[in-house]
Amino acid sequence: MAAGGTDMGPEGPGAGEQPGGLRSALAGLTTRGRSFLAAGVAAAVCSYVLGQADLLRVGLLLAALPLVCVAVVYRTRYRVAGSRRLAPARVPAGSEARVHLRMDNVSRLPTGLLMLQDRVPYVLGPRPRFVLDRVEPGGRREVSYRVRSDLRGRYPLGPLQLRLSDPFGMCELTRAFSAYDTLTVVPRVEPLPPVRLTGEAAGYGDGRHRSLALAGEDDVIPRGYRIGDDLRRVHWRSTARYGELMVRREEQPQRAHCTVLLDTRRTAHYGSGPDSAFEWAVSGAASAAVHLLERGYAVRLLTDTGSSVPGPDGGGGFTGSTHDSAETAGLMLDTLAVVDHSDGGGLSPAFEVLRGGGEGLLVAFLGDLDEEQAVMAARMRHRTTAAVAFVLDGAAWSRGAEFGATQELEDRLRRLREAGWTALPVGPGASLTQLWRQADAQGATRADAGSRAAGGMTGSWT
């Protein structure tokens, strides 16, 4: 919400001095006003050359009319206040937001005809303009307009401008408010099905590890009594031993961790625009992060540069409780709204972050991988309990043709799968929902194959 006030006159109680004075007012002459002034001067010159006194009167009238309008507009004193409200201030790409504008006349005089316009970036649509008729003293006017963008980003709205004109349209003066707002266009978030990604320690969605502080009567780890503790948890043996009230510790739930890795390397993605491979990867990372947060995971967003969200140090960044999931999701979406290609050449910075503590599920959205980067990605799997990779086929995206995995891409996928990844190729226009289900099916198949292999080994040894 942005608000501000402005004065539409050069003097009066509390009014500010207009910059430029009469010079700025003369500069506000419209095409019509300049035409009348030029015609008046021309008529006066012709009257002098031809000796026609009547023509001189006409020339003086034509020249005087725009000058009188300039003086009237310049002497007009209005005090108005304006505010702007966005609903909502954060929207997905391709969705609309409504901007509400409000003008209040805080002076004792009614206003004349006002033109209200708001500055918006070209990508959000045409510049909105509204004509406000006479506003009574203490009155207000409310108008609204819609903005929409297919490109994510942060876009400034404002400042709000008021244009004052005379009834003949000879002169226009513009005054601007100082306040502005920011509209954040985040990536599209696709709802994902609640499947179980094989490889998690305690199940998908319910994957929470619990460390039991109370493993038995002899293994009690008590703590001091705090106001509000349940008296049924008082541990009398420890109370007698320490001489103060001691209570049993409750089970401490630990949220399952997940890292969403987004490959932003410029060399790994082709094309630009809302339908490009990079935008698909950004939208996929946003969808996965929001979905896993909703399922109770502690999620961090990691890029190939090694920066992570949340967390300013770039080395951790996992959320700590379920209460901040909505805030964390908003923070991640705001980050993805402005994420751009990186000039990095490899995934080693991200690998270093994972090596410093990357246990849990890893969901990666990768661009084109050469042999070296495929090896680096394969090594990431050993730092996690489960890993799912969506590898974009850059050649297919650049051609815009029907998807068909090349031999090179198949080799990269095979290397990832041999390292334990659940790896899927992504072609133009692929549905993340379907790929999400395929990842679950592929992971289940790999788990069944591993179980049968383990069973065969056991039988041979017995």
Automatic annotation (TrEMBL):
Transmembrane segments: none annotated. InterPro entries: DUF58 (IPR002881). Pfam families: DUF58 (PF01882). Residues 223-307 form the DUF58 domain. It comes from the Bacteria. Residues 1-23, 443-462 are annotated as: Disordered. This is DUF58 domain-containing protein.
